[in-house]
Amino acid sequence: xxxxPNQFSQDINKALxxxxxxxxxxxxxxxxxxxxxxxxxxxxxxxxxxxxVAESGFSWNQLIEATQSMSLFSSQQFIELELPTGKxxxxxxxxxxxxxxxxxxxxxxxxxxxxIGKDVQRGKWFKVLDEIGVSVLCYPLEGKQLNAWIxxxxxxxxxxxxxxxxxxxxxxxxxxxxAAKQEIDKLALLYPQQSVSETQIxxxxxxxxxxxxxxxxxxxxxxxxxxxxxxxxxxxxEGLEPNIVIWALIREWEQLWKLKTALQNREPIxxxxxxxxxxxxSYYQNALNRLSIEQLEDIQxxxxxxxxxxxxxxxxxxxxxxxxxxxxxxxxxxxxVPLLDA
Length: 342
Known about the structure:
CATH superfamily of the largest domain: P-loop containing nucleotide triphosphate hydrolases
Number of helices: 16
Largest sheet: 5 strands, parallel
Low-confidence stretches: none
Shape: globular
Structural class: alpha/beta
């Protein structure tokens, strides 16, 4: 049974499941969920804990032995199995299915790892463990979901913050929930159970937002000018290679050109045919509504020129040029402004 991270506390407070599958690329949520399992396990008598990591050279017999061994100190065994790749492989899959079939009340199994795809979730080992336990997929939160998570964290510390203050925390730490949790903990120490103003938040916090190029292109396609510039600034400060960004922009232009051509030919857009999932369709739709064929042609020329210049290392401030290119994707008329600072 799949449960969202924000619903996990309610479920584990009701009862301890025989098995937990925790996967995802958002460390703060994973840490919170796993710590809740460990705490509940200890309180329920699972004091004997075995940690296994299925890395290269791992013997799956260790898992079988752990489920069958009896401790001198406790009859209840808590087994944590980490899958560094998110996949157990053929042998591991068979072993996990065997464990699932023979899991008794004195064994508690936790399997965790990085982000996994639908192919893993459809695997037999995952399904049989999910049927007897709970799976939690932890992904980065954005927008309203991130704001809701921040408000929950603030309430847990009995901190009173205005909507503008919560939004400030979100902006400071967007893309880095671990940093957001740390900053909220800091506010709780500085202003215990108090009402915290926007000025106090601003003075206490350090901008720890962390972005990647995939988030950047989504914001760019959606036409969010200010947020896009902020992301570019952060990516530059983190030392991201500019050629990675230009590659992403070229890829998005190619996708937009295909979509725009289909619309020009009065063809209905089949989003899945273009590999665009539901959560990103609105971004592309906004860009298509905003950009004409002529603007896309101008962007192509600018991208070609910039890509060549980047590869020749003749641009002194590449991120200024990248900002210029992103603004063109947002529909700003920059044709009269020289793109390259040669």
